[in-house]
Design a protein that fits this description.
It is a single chain. By secondary structure, this protein is mostly helical. Helices cover 72% and strands 0% of the residues. It folds into two domains: 73 residues, no CATH class; 241 residues, MetI-like (MetI-like fold). The longest helix has 39 residues.
């Protein structure tokens, strides 16, 4: 197992290299870089991409012509533009810039944000608590609810309980996360009905003045709606996955043999079936955690006004803040790869019979 983990760790390096190469190459073809963004701000034009708005053909040309702040019409001195390119490091060829970036990343030096004037690593650490709160609690709740419910549905397959719970699960899975989040706000955050939970933020304004118990209660008071909104789809998927895994295992020969030997149903279920059925559920853990931690965080953070990694990445992409884009991409990629290795280790913990080295051979 140690040799397998070592090989997986060594594969992290070329994987991250491939991710950075592809995304760095794609960025070179995207219009409106950080220099254009800065020029638009200097000229008071806001976002450089406003110049690209409008219809096609003559209508688009008229829209651009009417916009005096369009980057292509600005008459800033070439010296200022060259100074901005040097400031952002864009005066060097792309290959040289990429190699410099790799050298810095090897030392975990992700540079400084172009527009926030703060180290990328410090910026990520500043936003991390919000995303960790969403990802950790959502994944934990999804597993704590889905596994017992999925087991019960498997044991009572075809019963009325199984039928109506399946209906609820399918309905929950069909509801988009952002729509469910808005519904929660309308119902429980003072939209049109009850003012039970706060509308935005992760803590109250007077959080620093609260007692330890008050801080804990205030934190959970704020995080309840965002966690519920981000958990709903993962909850549905995991429940059905657990049920189907148990149904497959219950029908196998070794289960009938164990029952024929006189073992109790509880011993058969949790001593034999549980260990094998949980393998596929554990295999889905990285996808669930990473999905909640990254993919769903942008919409949830925006709706509930939470300042986390999702909004950070989106704002960096819009502003063409390259250090933040590539720094967060590197960190996210590294985290997802490490979580995948942890998932393999959990495989072995659940079922020591698994040997990845023999499987590779």
């Amino acid at each position: 197992m140690a040799a397998y983990i070592l090989r997986r760790l060594l594969l992290v390096i070329p994987t991250l290299f491939g991710i950075l190469v592809i995304n760095f190459a794609l960025v070179q073809f995207v219009p409106g870089g950080p220099v254009e963004q800065m020029i638009a701000q200097l000229e008071g034009g806001g976002d450089v991409f406003e110049g690209f708005a409008g219809g096609g053909g003559d209508a688009g040309g008229e829209a651009i012509a009417a916009n005096d702040n369009y980057a292509g019409r600005q008459g800033l001195p070439p010296e200022l533009i060259a100074e901005l390119e040097e400031q952002f490091g864009l005066d060097k060829p792309p290959v040289e810039r990429f190699l410099i970036m790799l050298g810095n990343y090897a030392q975990f030096d992700f540079g400084e944000s172009y527009f926030r004037k703060i180290d990328v690593l410090d910026l990520v650490l500043e936003k991390m608590p919000v995303s960790i709160s969403l990802g950790l609690w959502s994944t934990l709740i999804a597993y704590l609810v889905s596994i017992p419910l999925g087991i019960r549905k498997a044991l009572r397959d075809g019963s009325r309980f199984d039928t109506w719970t399946s209906g609820i699960i399918i309905a929950a899975y069909a509801i988009p996360g952002f729509l469910f989040a808005i519904l929660l706000l309308v119902l429980f955050a003072g939209g049109s009905y009850w003012q039970i939970f706060p509308l935005r933020g992760l803590t109250s304004d007077n959080w620093e003045n609260l007692s330890l118990f008050g801080k804990i209660a205030d934190y959970f008071w704020h995080i309840t709606l965002p966690v519920v909104a981000s958990t709903i789809s993962a909850f549905a998927t995991l429940t059905l996955l657990t049920k189907n895994s148990f149904l497959d295992e219950i029908k196998k020969q070794y289960v009938m043999t164990a029952r024929a030997k006189g073992l109790s149903e509880r011993r058969v279920l949790y001593g034999h079936v549980f260990r094998n059925a949980m393998l596929i559920v554990i295999a889905g853990f990285p996808a669930v955690f990473i999905g909640v931690f990254f993919s769903g965080s942008l919409i949830i953070e925006t709706i509930f006004s939470l300042d986390g990694l999702g909004r950070l990445g989106f704002e960096a992409a819009v502003a063409r803040d390259y250090p933040v884009i590539f720094g967060t991409l590197f960190i996210f990629g590294l985290m997802s790869l490490v979580v995948g290795i942890i998932s393999d280790i959990m495989y072995v913990i659940v079922d020591p019979r698994i040997d990845f080295e023999k499987r590779e051979g």
